[in-house]
Design brief:
17 strands, 11-stranded mixed sheet, 3 domains, binds L-homoserine, Rossmann fold
Length: 419
């Protein structure tokens, strides 16, 4: 039987989850993967009252872990700059690295993969995107013979949890508090709700599928904090659900990278995914559309992805594919302002008859087509409509013009994701 000695850096929610999962499934992993995973060291500044590591030695300086006689450093400290230094120290000491840290891969991936590749050392990061739901190795290996045009989906469990609870009538703040209690949210939840976490993840997937750089040069990011119960109701009446989508879309040689709320057709697979689930749609040339869904956050799901990396490392002697030499040039990243979207507009008005005429005339002036301005039956102060496919810059200009119409009190716009 093969044996792999690991050192875990960090002793928070994710690290203790890994410790528990390895202990729980130790015999099963031995049987199924012919592998004995041995946790030799834990690097932790302080104990965690929620988990007793029994006889595993704890090193108070996390960097000491990288100097021990182990095969792998599992980086679970989170954050960016210290995590980068820790990974660099592990690489310098010829230790393979496994990390669940999407932020450090997003910000320093090019540098870290370059150094790892030169030293013939591997950095594995399955859990960095969608936790244990398999996607990284699926793209790197199973779909490696495909041209991938578009990857889109909900890559942040917290926002999908909040949006699907709001769709059922819950309020934003208490639902975020539940997501924090359940351990879905980042230590700073603004990373979840402002779309940054999802952006990190799609940036990483685009690096694998499209060869964009890490960090990417251009990215549009918007969060979910402006979405209201009225938007859910209006979207639903129009046949849509509201999701936070992260998208990497290659059209010819141009790649869009974006993370923002979007209306998606109710009957789509992505719309049907509720709660903390992540869902990804991958458009491939050989297999067509592939859907992958599963839990994208939480202790156990993350542990599953980390264990899959440990097993993978023990099974493979070939270096993993890396794109560091063949980056898509920054010019090939599309300017967000040039992307075409249909748009949902929702407007709070004081006098809808007056305002509707003005909206139509502004739309005409901008060559924007509106099929119908719908009056909200339950909320007389609200009207909403959908535009034709419009360039992002034109839609923003139209939004600014609508804002200054007399009797318009508030305007919301959400882009519609085309099929
Ligand atoms: N905060 C993240 C999420 C955790 O909600 O998806 C997993 O990356």
């Amino acid at each position: 039987m093969k044996k792999i000695n690991i050192g875990i850096c960090g002793w928070g929610n994710v690290a203790t989850g890994l410790y528990k999962a390895i202990n729980k499934n130790h015999e099963l992993i031995k049987k199924q993967a012919n592998l004995d995973i041995c946790i030799k060291f834990i690097g932790a500044r302080r104990d965690n009252p929620k988990c007793n590591p029994q006889d595993v030695e704890i090193l108070r300086d996390i960097f000491d872990v990288t100097h021990q006689d182990i095969d792998v450093v599992v980086e679970l400290i989170g954050g960016v700059e210290t995590a980068r230094e820790l990974i660099l120290s592990a690489l310098k000491n010829k230790k393979h690295v496994i990390t669940a840290n999407k932020a450090v891969i997003f910000h320093h991936g090019d540098e870290l993969f370059n150094i790892a590749s030169k030293n013939n050392i591997k950095i594995l990061y399955e859990s960095a995107v969608c936790a244990g739901t398999p996607i990284i190795k699926v793209l790197q290996e199973e779909l490696a013979g495909n041209k991938i045009s578009k990857i889109s989906g909900m890559l942040n469990g917290t926002t999908n949890f909040i949006l699907s609870e709001m769709e059922k009538g819950a309020d934003f703040d208490p639902t975020l508090a539940i997501a924090q209690e359940k351990g879905y949210a980042e230590p700073d939840p603004s990373f979840d709700i402002n779309g940054i976490d999802a952006a990190h993840k799609i940036g990483i997937l685009s690096y694998i599928a499209h060869g964009t750089s890490l960090p990417p040069q251009k990215f549009y990011i918007e969060g979910i904090s402006d979405i209201t119960s009225t938007d859910f109701k209006n979207a639903s009446d129009l046949g849509y659900a509201i999701k936070h989508l992260a998208v990497a879309n290659q059209i010819n040689n141009s790649i869009e990278l974006r993370a923002h709320p979007a209306l998606v057709r109710k009957e789509s697979i992505l719309a049907s995914l509720q709660g903390v689930r992540n869902g990804i749609e991958i458009d491939t040339d050989l297999v067509g559309k592939i859907h992958i869904t599963g839990s994208g956050a939480g202790q156990e799901s993350t542990a599953s992805g980390l264990i899959s990396d440990i097993i993978h490392l023990s099974n493979n002697n070939i270096p993993l594919a890396d794109n560091t030499d063949e980056k898509a040039s920054s010019e090939s990243l599309k300017e967000f302002n040039t992307i075409l979207f249909q748009n949902y507009f929702s407007i709070e008005v004081e006098d809808d008859k007056e305002v509707n005429q003005k909206i139509i005339s502004e739309a005409d002036n901008n060559n924007i087509k509106i099929e119908e301005i719908i009056s909200n039956k339950d909320k007389p102060s609200n009207v909403y409509f959908i535009t034709n496919l419009v360039k992002e810059s034109e839609a923003s200009k139209f939004l600014k013009q609508l804002k200054v119409i007399e009797f318009v009190k508030d305007i919301k716009r959400i882009r519609i994701e085309s099929e």
